[in-house]
Amino acid sequence: MTWRVFLLIPWLVSALPALAGTEAPQRPPRTGHARALTLDEAIDLAFAQNPDLAAAAARIGQAEAHVLEAEAAFYPKVTARMEYSYSNNPALAFSSIVAQRRFNFGMNINQPGWVSNFRPEVVGAMNLYRGGQDTALKKAAELGVEAAELERSALRNRLAAAVTAAYYAVLSAPKQAEVAHRSVETVAKALEHTRARVAEGMALKADVLSLEVRATEAYESELKAKNAMELSRSALKTLLGAGEIPEFREIDPGLPKPEADFGKLLDEALNQRPEMQAAARQVQMREQELEAAQGAHRPRVDAYASYGQNSRSPGDFSFNNDNGSIGLSAEVDVFSGGAVSARIQAAERRIVEAQAIQERTRLEIEDEVRQAHLTLNETLQRLKVAEAGTDSAEEALRLVHEQYRGGTATVTRYLEAETDHANAALRAILARYETRVAEAQLRKALGHWR
After folding, report:
1. Which of 204, 221, 323, 449 could form a disulfide with 180 if both were Cys (CB 3.0 to 4.6 A apart)?
2. Which residues form a coiled coil (predicted)?
3. CB 445 within 8 A of CB 369
4. Is 309 a domain residue?
5. Looking at the domain assignment, is residue 184 inside a domain?
């Protein structure tokens, strides 16, 4: 009876830590009377409330902010500043006197004395050319936004599959508990009948003991089944991000009919899976970062302009003393100690790394599709066998029960038939819901919920 009764529950609990729109999802208003949800409604609820998706939306916002930061390099930079100096250095003092429009030929240029100079100033600068670095960094940032959006799509795909598994675990748990309860009742009736026969001298005390052991096992299985019901609901609550555990109603969509051609499935997965597209974006990002690093070898050209005025004290400001300047500057790094070359080499290695990750992602997707396809076909076959076995086990138990009550079957044979019936019923329940979960896993492998 301890056969894998609760197969769906451990799978679900172990899968929970792996789950983690351009706008943060909004929580729908909650009402006092929750109606029963279908699977599609449960998935939509998870998309609206799961905190991992909210975190993914925040990461998209961060990526968009990086784009704005990269675009800022194409706009002028304007700075306002105030300077004060007090010096008797002939060069500095003389330049301050000239800027303040106070020079006369009677001054001793070599001994100007201490000179105060206040200068409020507005300075503007604009990058005209940086070897393509700014353009490459902007493209890399835009690819980063696309990668973040694809990562959110991948999370949605994984979340929907996990919700599906949890949903069917919640639906199957009460049915497993019902089977366990029926087993308890069946053994209890047999135990009562056997005790009566022992009292009449028609059965052995050992038969009662055997049935008592079986009753204990059946009761233990019922307790586990009831606990599994709570575990499955708690797991689904975590995935939905809900404060309350809603009720669910099952809609039977019929048995799935998987595509027989694995090649078609693989092509569909490679074209649809967001993980594959995100890996491609990562390669493109690294290529743009390499372009930016190589741009450091090229010249840089900047334009600048400034406007301000000089005076001996803040109270002496006058537009008669204003002055300004404009100009261009060009520079190129002749030698930087190998820093630029090192950055280029690092960027090249990051491209190789991204390409390797892209290939690994492709292999993982191929393996996931193959396993999901094989598992679905296996569960469909097991479902047919399990349903046929349930009918046989139920009829066998009925016959053995009549024989046992008539005294023509031993208690050992009765226990075997009852155990076979309980296990067959559980196998049928698990096979049906495992088929649904396997179908969801294949959909996830194909990127159905991206």
Report:
1. 221
2. 138-165
3. yes
4. no
5. yes
